[in-house]
Amino acid sequence: MPITFSPIKRRQFLAGSFAAGLSAVFFPKNIFAHNIDIKQTNSTDHWVFLSDTHVPSDPEKILRGQNPNKNYITVRDEILKLTDKPKGIIVTGDFALDIGTPEDYKQLVSLTAPYIDAGISVHVALGNHDRLNNFLDAFTQFKKEKSPVFNKYVTILETPNCNLFILDSLFEPEHVSGYLGYLQRQWLAKELDARKEKPALLFAHHNPGDIVDNQHFWYVVKPRKQVKAFFYGHTHVYQQSILDNVHLINLPALGYDFQNGKQPIGWIDSRIADNGIELTLHPIDKTRSDNGEVKQFKWLR
Ligand SMILES: [Fe+2]
């Protein structure tokens, strides 16, 4: 359930396994395409990627040793200090803590407002720990009926170097796994076919292996060579793999990790060129060895 916060609507804002036969191959070392240099490109798209913020209403609540409210604010303040302001922020789901309560979203409205004040749009694909109606009750400018897909909320962001497709894998009520559905897959195919001229990057909350209709999803993606990468969260692990020459990029969580500090908690700065993408990891813990780690991914098809 992607939801877009428009900077120009600040006042309104405040008012309101891959299945058998499909196997992703993990080659973390081999996917770094060092022969590209994003920074030498004259025109790059600058975006920030977040995932699994898991913000609770209680600003003091601690989960797995982390304070998600504090993490959200810490990262937000780092992003707002960037001299090169990002065009926008994409959050790949699990925006709220556990069952997406009205109180959680009220807190998120407050925490997200400074981005809007700074003119930075925020786009959210709700995850399995979100709840659509509670979200919409808090963010009143969003309406189900505005989405081109029934009972799903999908968005296309057209940028100079690529088209960003924010997909909706939320499978209510209370399913942990994700589901896109026939209508969304048909819509995706049609909109991709209408945008063959630029690379397409797809974003959703669930990892492909935990999307119930992943095989049918991939029937749409595989033949459409403009799809270069699929970004997702859900696992709270920062990792990358390749399937059919499509980069599968699992974004790190911001709320907390499941591996007692082995996984980074933080945010990703991205530069999107016409031939690939550069990702820079910014963990909250600046003493980590992967602080500032840069990975470049060349488009493979
Ligand atoms: Fe999560």
Q: How is this structure best described in words?
A:
The protein is an alpha/beta fold. The chain has one domain: Purple Acid Phosphatase, chain A, domain 2, CATH 3.60.21. It has 6 helices and 13 strands. The strands form 2 sheets. It has a 7-stranded mixed beta sheet. β11 (266-272) and β12 form a beta hairpin. α2 packs parallel to α3 (102-117) and α5 (182-193) packs parallel to α6 (214-221). Fe (ii) ion is lined by residues 52, 54, 94, 129, 234, 236.
Architecture blueprint of SSEs:
Blueprint: E1 2-5, H1 10-15, E2 45-50, H2 68-80, E3 88-91, H3 102-117, E4 121-125, H4 132-138, E5 155-158, E6 163-166, H5 182-193, E7 200-203, H6 214-221, E8 227-232, E9 239-243, E10 246-250, E11 266-272, E12 276-283, E13 294-298
Parallel strand pairs: 2-3, 3-4, 6-7, 7-8, 8-10
Antiparallel strand pairs: 1-4, 2-11, 5-6, 9-10, 11-12, 12-13
Helix pairs in contact: 2-3, 3-4, 5-6
Label this structure with key terms.
single chain, 301 residues, alpha/beta, Purple Acid Phosphatase, chain A, domain 2, 7-stranded mixed sheet, 6-stranded mixed sheet, 6 helices, 13 strands, globular
Q: Give the cofactors and ligands.
A: fe (ii) ion
* Strand composition percent: 15-25%
The CATH superfamily is known as Metallo-dependent phosphatases
- Strand pairing plus helix content: what structural class? alpha/beta
